[in-house]
Amino acid sequence: MTEDSPANPRKIIHVDMDAFYASVEQRDDPSLRGKPLAVGGSAKRGVVAAASYEARKFGVKSAMPGVTARRRCPKLLFVKPRFEVYRAVSRQLHEIFARYTELIEPLSLDEAYLDVTADTAGIGSATGIAEAIRRNIRDELHLTASAGVSYNKFIAKVASDQNKPDGVLVVRPGEGADFVASLPARRFYGVGPRTAERMSALGIHTGADIRAQTLSFLEQHFGKSAHYLYQASRGEDYRSVRPDRERKSIGGERTYSQDLLLDEDLRTALEHIIDIVWERIEKNKTLGRTVTLKVKYADFQQITRARSVSPPVETRADFERISRGLLEALLPVAKGVRLLGLTLSALEAPLGASIDDPEGVAEAGPVQESLAF
């Protein structure tokens, strides 16, 4: 953990899909819905990769041998995993994340940290962003996700598990220490069964019990984990969200508190987004061949219009011309517009530059210190 300013708390969301593999299978095959389901092998050496919530009621868990799972739940249905489908859904999931922030740290196909401190979508609160993401997932992917919203990664991740499935929990800076104090010790990173046994033998059962120990005591009994336990038990975790994926697009969008209907209002709104996106393009020293306009209407219908060019877009004038042309083709609109967005994709770097520069990926616009939880 590294130091950060506590006066400027981050707004971090941990999004975790609910029973991801199993839920995708139930979504795609209605006959499986509402039934105990395991994704994986039922043979002697087969292992459960994921279990539906109906199966979990019987104690079926991931990584459990298939024969054990069948013994616990005789009516358990097994399906073979379709990883190519899960990867495709994961890509759709990350496209949803990217509407709200560029700071995305994937942990697996179905979960990620998002730093939404900058509020690039203009929603106004981290909780509002989490709910918007969950709504997008439900409406577009026909799946559910749970989310934890907090000021650091540790608490956000733990919080996302508290109200599963299909829930959200917000832990604000003033609530973090008490929230952590109530956690069982086994909920801390790295505390497996053996460490939990050692803690129990020392009279340590909760976060409050860990916090009651001195750093030297923790070092004596838990070695390298001591500093982490000492800080986490106080609700402290200064790690930043670190994107590790190659940038595939640069964009920005805005949701409006009042729907836009007049042509001039839409043109003015587009100019503001052009300013935002071009600034990011320049900072990342990136060229791209495809400009995409996204429009979401008042009834939540969403459309995109794109134009690809060769050679790539090199100047602001080119970017403006293409963006305005995409909007003009839609005017006049028959219903109000609640969201506009622009994206530059099919990226390539100019000579001597790199489009996956970590510093560029981390750029997400100015931090709005007033963003609420």
UniProtKB/TrEMBL annotation:
The record marks 21 as: Substrate discrimination. InterPro entries: DNA/RNA_pol_sf, DNA_pol_Y-fam_lit_finger_sf, DNA_pol_Y-fam_little_finger, DNA_polymerase-Y, DNApol_IV, IMS_HHH_1, Rev_trsase/Diguanyl_cyclase, UmuC. Belongs to the DNA polymerase type-Y family. It comes from the Bacteria. The active site is at residue 111. One of its GO terms (molecular function) is DNA-directed DNA polymerase activity. Monomer. This is DNA polymerase IV. PROSITE patterns: UMUC. HAMAP family: DNApol_IV (MF_01113). It is found in: Cytoplasm. It catalyses: DNA(n) + a 2'-deoxyribonucleoside 5'-triphosphate = DNA(n+1) + diphosphate. Poorly processive, error-prone DNA polymerase involved in untargeted mutagenesis. Copies undamaged DNA at stalled replication forks, which arise in vivo from mismatched or misaligned primer ends. These misaligned primers can be extended by PolIV. Exhibits no 3'-5' exonuclease (proofreading) activity. May be involved in translesional synthesis, in conjunction with the beta clamp from PolIII. Its EC number is 2.7.7.7. It is an enzyme of class 2 (transferase). Residues 12-192 form the UmuC domain.
